[in-house]
Structure to design on (313 residues):
């Protein structure tokens, strides 16, 4: 399919259950809204529950039935908060299974190094560690689904990393360079996809869970607001001019979630010449030399397991 649009998404998602992080603005709001208005149950995790509900109300049309949408407290950078959110989902009788786990929440290129409540560099804690732990805790809810998908969010910013030595300083204690750390967190999204797929393939019973990664392209979202450097300044000035609207930028994630023809392990992103704009399609991973290095992938996974205490069954 050359130009996948919203009209290609199923009209009726009744019976589907999705868990998504970060729906208080931008792409997350669009994805949650599109899934919910098609009849799916959408369980959103947000640091600011009120803001997330307000965002959903802002995009809701008079004809929308969003009764399947609910938002719950989740600070994905806090391991305790992740565990509390996961426990709530696990114990909810009206969530017998999860059809899609959408790891969307993220922060980008903070001007200075900050740490999470657990002492980890904040971009890695938010973009990587919290989602790593959340997936491990919800995996048993994904397995009973007729078919399920886990979607991790990457970026072309993964190309900003060119040093293997970064994997020896994942917590950025020796050196903090905002875009490099952000890029590492986006490489981690690929590495998470590939390692989880491998582990699922080794289970005694064949897995019905696909693991995909996505790239939203250059999309005008609040993600740029707190970032630093020349690139961030350029991107902020281009908002509304060269950037896609969130409704367009969300299509890569939406397609990954609802298009069952997408092969397991794929990377979806804008199909335009620059990779920043255009309809979503399967594209090649960015920075393949580092992304596909098995030693670096093993280092990242081991770091995440040690930091979070994740257990994979």
């Amino acid at each position: 399919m050359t130009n996948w649009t919203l009209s290609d998404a199923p009209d009726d998602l009744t019976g589907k259950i999705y868990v998504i992080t970060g729906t208080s603005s931008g792409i997350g709001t669009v994805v949650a809204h599109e899934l919910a208005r098609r009849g799916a149950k959408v369980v959103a995790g947000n640091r600011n529950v009120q803001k997330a509900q307000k965002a959903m109300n802002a995009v809701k049309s008079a004809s929308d039935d969003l009764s399947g949408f609910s938002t719950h407290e989740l600070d994905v950078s806090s391991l305790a908060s992740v565990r509390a959110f996961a426990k709530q989902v696990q114990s909810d009788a009206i969530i017998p299974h999860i059809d899609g786990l959408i790891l969307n929440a993220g922060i980008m290129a903070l001007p200075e190094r900050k740490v999470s409540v657990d002492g980890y560099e904040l971009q890695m804690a938010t973009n990587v560690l919290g989602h790593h732990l959340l997936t491990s805790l919800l995996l048993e809810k994904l397995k009973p689904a007729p078919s399920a998908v886990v979607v991790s969010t990457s970026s072309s910013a993964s190309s900003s990393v060119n040093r293997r030595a970064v994997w020896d300083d994942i917590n950025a204690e020796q050196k903090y360079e905002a875009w490099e750390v952000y890029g590492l967190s986006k490489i981690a999204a690929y590495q998470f996809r590939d390692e989880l797929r491998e582990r699922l393939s080794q289970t005694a019973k064949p897995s019905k869970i696909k693991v995909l990664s996505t790239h939203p392209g250059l999309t005008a979202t609040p993600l740029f607001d707190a970032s630093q450097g020349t690139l961030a300044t350029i991107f902020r000035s281009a908002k509304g001019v060269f950037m896609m609207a969130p409704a367009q930028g969300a299509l890569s994630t939406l397609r990954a979630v609802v298009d069952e023809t997408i092969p397991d392990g794929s990377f979806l992103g804008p199909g335009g010449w620059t990779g920043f704009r255009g309809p979503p399609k399967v594209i090649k991973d960015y920075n393949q030399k580092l992304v596909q290095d098995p030693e670096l992938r093993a280092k990242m996974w081991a770091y995440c397991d040690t930091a979070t205490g994740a257990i994979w069954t």
